[in-house]
Amino acid sequence: MQGSFFVYWKKMNVLIKYRAKTYNIFIGYKFLRNYINYYLKLFKMNPNFCFTFSVLLITALCFSKAGTAQDMWGSWAHKIPAKGYEGKRFRMEAQVRSEGTGETSAARLWARVDNPNKDGFFENMNDRPVQDSDWSYHNIEGFIDAAASQLVIGALVTSGGRFYYDNFKVEIEMEKGKWIIVFEEDFEKDLKEWTAGIGSGTDGISQYKASTLQDGKNKSKVLLIEGSD
User: Fold this and answer.
1) β-bridge mates for residue 158, sequence order
2) According to the model, what pLDDT value does residue 118 have?
3) pTM for the complete prediction?
4) Which H helix or E strand runs over 8?
């Protein structure tokens, strides 16, 4: 029984990772994997319990879009109409730093192209988490579909901590090698152009709080997103 369980868990590892990425449950996969591995060691003399426990957690993650992981990540978004930029390349950049409370705490940037006919471009720096407390620039580049309605950009945080963002910039390549700036944000005023979530539905709206404050390291106002595990 125990041997077959480990074969099963190895296969389910792949499925969990795929579903987590598909549904943007950015932290759910790693959290679940570590949680079950912990119980495998704790109850190593009771594989039946481990098997039942893992099936329940895997089912909850794989068949629930948000699941219990919703409170472990949060997002703030800004929308840019795509009119006039259809069929063009875009690039965005921002400064980011992170003061996390755990190994899965991280800050990221993300960008999504909304297209009514098909799935558009999407990138969330899933493999590039920002966990350094010093400011650094990060970027995303993509393509705006011909039928796109809008480009949505945002700040994404996972697990507990204080996460800082500044100097967002979005550029469009109107002609080969010629880029124009279509959006800039330095957070010196307020957050009126930003909304909690991912720009649609309720995903990404959680217990995290966003505000602007004077940052000692950057010597300017920045976006702060903070929350606990």
Assistant:
1) 73, 106
2) 80
3) 0.71
4) helix 2-22
Calpha distance 222→70 (Å, rounded): 25
Output the six-digit token pair for 189.
């005023």
List Cα–Cα distances, 84 to 33, 118, 179, in angstroms. Answer: 44, 19, 14
Rounded CA separation 107/57 (Å): 26
Asked whether the beta carbons of 61 and 53 are under 8 A apart, the reply is no
Measure the CA–CA gap between 172 and 151, rounded to whole angstroms: 11
Q: Which positions ≥6 away from 195 have C-beta within 8 Å? A: 76, 77, 78
pLDDT along the chain (229 residues), means of 10: 48 44 44 56 58 63 50 92 97 97 95 90 96 97 96 96 97 97 94 91 88 85 91
